[in-house]
């Protein structure tokens, strides 16, 4: 319920974060005033054109203008997002951030025996940027289904011949599909990719029959009639997806997932700097041009405080840990 409240009402959190310095009636601490003193690097753990890449690039110029320093976006895809997050976790220059998502932050500790970083100890949540439902999508030529029940019937008739793509092992897309398959009593082979653009392309070209992922990488293929969207995985739907039914309405209420994204800083970053980045990012996320650009891609702006973001992460770990263990998904 905490997460649903946050998603339905991000404005009070964002406004309170922005108002803190004014309410206190004092200037920001020296550490925050001095930051940044050089170029800020934001590591994106997925490739160009992914939803995370779109979010950071929509924000980077406006953040740079606020900070008076350039903001460089660096794509580091690989290992289901862990490669890029590891870069940020080990950064010591004081000017490296990363955008993270469910998999390498909340899920992977349950999937891997060993990770290159500890997401709970080596990274600090700064702000939740967006949250969006995963969308069930199919190849429009190979798969005749136009509804979720029709897809289930078609997939059941194929036996073990069905495959699906995801943006990486342990991603929200991967686990949402595994949960859906278990609930529907279906079998399918997982084909992971490094990011949503190649995973979406695989469905568009017929290399994969289906996928669960957020909408941005799918929408160009939908417009070209190569991919068909069947349903969203949560009750919250951005305007661009409001005509799609929910999985709950098709009888799969247990298959509810939100793919969230947010900025992280290395552990040890001063609290005053975290607060400054949070306030500035909240302001940028309220910019009408930024909100419009993100909503057009099916991305719902959230914002809020670092503590709000931490609660969402904790909630995801608590909810999905038992699900991962029950499904028996292990990636070592």
Please provide a written account of the structure.
This protein has 332 residues and is α/β, with parallel strands linked by helices. The protein has two domains: 2-131 and 259-327, D-Maltodextrin-Binding Protein, domain 2 (3-Layer(aba) Sandwich); 135-250, D-Maltodextrin-Binding Protein, domain 2. Helices cover 44% and strands 18% of the residues. It has helices at 2-8, 10-24, 30-34, 51-67, 82-89, 102-111, 148-158, 172-184, 196-204, 219-223, 271-285, 288-296, 306-327, and strands spanning 40-44, 71-75, 96-101, 123-133, 135-139, 163-166, 189-192, 210-213, 227-232, 258-266, 300-301. The strands form two sheets. Strands 2-1-3-10-4-11 form a six-stranded mixed β-sheet, sandwiched between helices. Strands 7-6-8-5-9 form a five-stranded mixed β-sheet. Strand 6, helix 8 and strand 7 (189-192) form a beta-alpha-beta unit. Helix 4 crosses helix 11 (271-285). The longest helix has 22 residues, at 306-327. The protein starts with a helix and ends in a 5-residue tail after the last helix.
Shape, per Cα inertia axes: globular
Main beta sheet, described?
6 strands, mixed
Question: What level of helicity do the residues show?
Answer: 40-55%
Oligomeric description of these chains: single chain
In short:
By secondary structure, this protein is α/β, with parallel strands linked by helices. It contains 13 helices and 11 strands.
What is the topological layout?
Elements: H1 2-8, H2 10-24, H3 30-34, E1 40-44, H4 51-67, E2 71-75, H5 82-89, E3 96-101, H6 102-111, E4 123-133, E5 135-139, H7 148-158, E6 163-166, H8 172-184, E7 189-192, H9 196-204, E8 210-213, H10 219-223, E9 227-232, E10 258-266, H11 271-285, H12 288-296, E11 300-301, H13 306-327
Parallel strand pairs: 1-2, 1-3, 6-7, 6-8
Antiparallel strand pairs: 3-10, 4-10, 4-11, 5-8, 5-9
Helix pairs in contact: 2-11, 4-11, 6-13
């Amino acid at each position: 319920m905490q997460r649903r409240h946050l998603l339905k009402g991000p404005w009070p959190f964002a406004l309170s974060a922005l108002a803190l310095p004014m309410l206190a009636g004092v200037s920001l601490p020296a550490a925050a005033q001095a930051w940044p003193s050089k170029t800020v690097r934001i590591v994106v753990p997925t490739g160009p054109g992914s939803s995370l890449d779109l979010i950071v690039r929509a924000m980077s110029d406006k953040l740079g203008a606020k900070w008076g320093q350039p903001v460089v976006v660096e794509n580091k895809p690989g290992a289901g997002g862990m490669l890029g997050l590891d870069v940020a976790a080990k950064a010591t220059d004081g000017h490296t951030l990363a955008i993270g998502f469910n998999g390498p932050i909340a899920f992977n500790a349950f999937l891997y025996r060993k990770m290159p970083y500890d997401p709970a100890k080596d990274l600090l949540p700064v702000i939740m940027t967006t949250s969006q439902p995963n969308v069930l999508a199919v190849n429009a030529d190979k798969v005749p289904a136009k509804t979720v029940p029709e897809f289930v019937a078609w997939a059941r008739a194929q036996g073990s011949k069905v495959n699906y793509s995801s943006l990486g092992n342990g991603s929200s897309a991967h686990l949402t599909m595994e949960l859906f398959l278990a609930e529907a009593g279906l079998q399918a082979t997982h084909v992971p990719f490094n990011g949503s653009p190649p995973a979406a392309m695989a469905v568009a070209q017929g290399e994969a029959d289906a996928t669960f992922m957020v909408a941005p990488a799918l929408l160009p293929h939908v417009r070209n009639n190569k991919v068909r969207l069947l349903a969203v995985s949560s009750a919250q739907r951005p305007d661009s997806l409001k005509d799609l039914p929910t999985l709950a309405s098709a009888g799969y209420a247990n298959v509810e997932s939100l793919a969230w994204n947010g900025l992280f800083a290395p552990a040890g970053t001063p609290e005053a700097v975290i607060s400054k980045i949070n306030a500035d990012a909240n302001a940028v996320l309220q910019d009408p041009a930024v909100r419009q650009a993100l909503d057009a891609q099916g991305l719902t702006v959230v914002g809020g405080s670092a503590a709000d973001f931490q609660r969402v992460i904790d909630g995801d770990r608590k909810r999905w840990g038992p699900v991962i263990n029950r499904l028996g998904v292990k990636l070592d």
